[in-house]
Amino acid sequence: MYPIISGSYAMRGTIQEPHLVNCREFSVTPLEDQALAAIIMDCDGQTSVRELASRYEISIDDLLAFLNKFESAGMIDFSPQQIRRRPFVALGQQSPWLREVHIDITNRCNLARWCRHCFRGDKLNRSQDVQTADWLRVIEDLSAMGSYSVAFSGGEPTLRRDLPQLVECVLKHKMFFGALFTNGFVWSKNMDAILSMLAESGSKTTLYVSLDGPTAKLHDANRGPGAYQKTVAFIKRLVAFRERCDAKYRLTVNSQVTAENMHTLLSWYDDLKKLDIDRWRITSGRVTGRLAENTGLLPSWDELFVEYEKLICQHIADYRSGPTMLLNMESFFNTSMLNNGYALTFSPVISICDYKEQACSIEPNGDVQFCTSWGSRNFGNVFSTGIRDIWHSDSLQTLKQMKVGQITECQNCDLLQFCGGGCRLVPGDVTKKDPTSCERYRRFVDIILPLLQAAGISFYNERSLP
Amino acid sequence: MKKLAARMRSFRVRTLKLQKRTHASVDMDQD
């Protein structure tokens, strides 16, 4: 018998922190013991169980019992003959692991003169896109350093004619193509090519489509005449293609909640359920870019949370009555909290934005940022310095590893366990409080938290987890 | 350190869950 890492898995991470990762969906299995990881890496379809046992001086029974644990999880296959397929192993030389990267592959946007909330503001359509070969090299560099998940956004990423080539490169390197963000305004040949690739690969990529309201009047006010009709048709086409081709991609509608649309949330939610999408993601956003100029769009916190309260109640009722569309509300609620029955809070030793501790984003010109929101700080350019050196630089890692307890202004605040300090971009000084987070989480604790607790969700930090 | 065979026997395949915190990324929709 010849064991081999399954075709839908790869070994990624760093030499110090190797992981078996699923190339089709976000799933990461750490192999904390490097000697054990070495055995898995040697499951290459060329080496028999007997040879492996001899190489590591262990009994065949022990080896088989060990490998069977991976086989039952779908991570290792056994072949009766030697097989030629090589398992994919890519480990970075140095920890920490850069697990996820969000790349804004273009600065071009076909709706640049519209969206009044766009965080890129007037930066769009101001510069030439970088060449295909340059992005391909970045993807290859990421693969070589063991990175796992890649997302594409922009600008409007579907405007790049080479988008299928970039997606193909991610899939070819057995990374997970995590997400594509689009305004869903134009269905180009690109979309057909990408969806075919996703269908063929079985990738559970999330396609995010932006919608700014449940009516043409609301959406078109922000995206231009006819946009609503086009985008809804775009979403329906994605749904139809998925069904026809048995593709596995996920569909999320992405919405900015504003003063104009917040009173429609309940009826909007009902409309979206009929579209057969997987998830609705709503946020009032960071006040940057155009939103900082169009402050009339900002909802009042009190009015917004009245609407959020109604929506959460409806969503919990739907959840209890059977499978339903999933919901992400701001950064504080996700349907999986209901699935899990618990959510984690923060303690002082948790990293700020711990969900981005192993991630960064790359701007259309190659500048590396802490995340897509933190546009005012550049840690170096991938085309001149290279992603490896930037990722491991002191300036970026100092921030990535900053702890919630270091936000000195928030140390005695009761909200800190829930907000984790909010966004470190907002205050300018990373040790100061984020006032927008204070507004949001005070109402979260007063209004949303009791609803979630009544729905059976418990709140723990790692120390108090039962 | 335990011998390799003992570590193999006690090893459990543990897939990391992305922890949902009360301040999490709105991109975290891998359930």
From TrEMBL, chain A:
**Alphabetized InterPro entries for the sequence:** 4Fe4S-binding_SPASM_dom, Aldolase_TIM, Radical_SAM_PqqE_MftC-like, rSAM, rSAM_sf
CDD domains, per the entry: Radical_SAM (cd01335)
- In terms of superkingdom, the source organism counts as Bacteria
Q: Which UniProt keywords apply?
A: Iron, Iron-sulfur, Metal-binding, S-adenosyl-L-methionine
Q: List each copy of the Radical SAM core domain by range.
A: 95-323
Keyword Transcription regulation listed: no
State the Pfam families in the record. Answer: Radical_SAM, SPASM
Which GO MF terms are attached to this record?
Answer: catalytic activity; iron-sulfur cluster binding; metal ion binding
Q: Please state what the protein is called.
A: Radical SAM core domain-containing protein
Species in which this protein is naturally found: Candidatus Buchananbacteria bacterium RIFCSPLOWO2_01_FULL_46_12
Q: What is the lineage of its organism?
A: Bacteria, Candidatus Buchananiibacteriota
